[in-house]
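note to self: dont lose this again. the chain is below, predicted strucutre after it. 156 aa total, dont forget to put it in the shared folder this time
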Amino acid sequence: MPLFRRKPPQHREPQPGPFVVEAIGHVRNGVAVPRPRGWEKVESEIALLPVHAARIAGIEAYSHIIVVFVMDLAAGAPEKPEALTLASGNRYGIFATRSQLRPNHIGLSAVPLLSREGTVLRVRGLDAIDGTAVIDIKPYLPAYDAWPGARIPPAG
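---
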């Protein structure tokens, strides 16, 4: 006899249209204008709302975190391209780029966690401008988040 019984598979309808998320904090770094590159040395603070203090307990034990944020300025961009031509001259669909001109303007970055002071996390390399809303933080787990042998297109 099995230790547990699985429920029979159920048909699940796709999620309907829009959904609501709330900011858990904001980015502070003095960068006022979005840019396509040059983030690797930028140090940022993620100032979490005080209500989330207990939710980050132990986060400082990790060397890296994953930050999920909203690229809100991109929402007002006049162009919503399906594809972009990168500096390499190669053309890629928008989902094959790190461009902020995405349908939902959600950003995700894995960054080194430099320090934690109360509800403020200091990180490096976060590609989000000053005031950007942070909607989630997760610890970076190499067993799940790093794939040896992963490939990317050539740069040049």
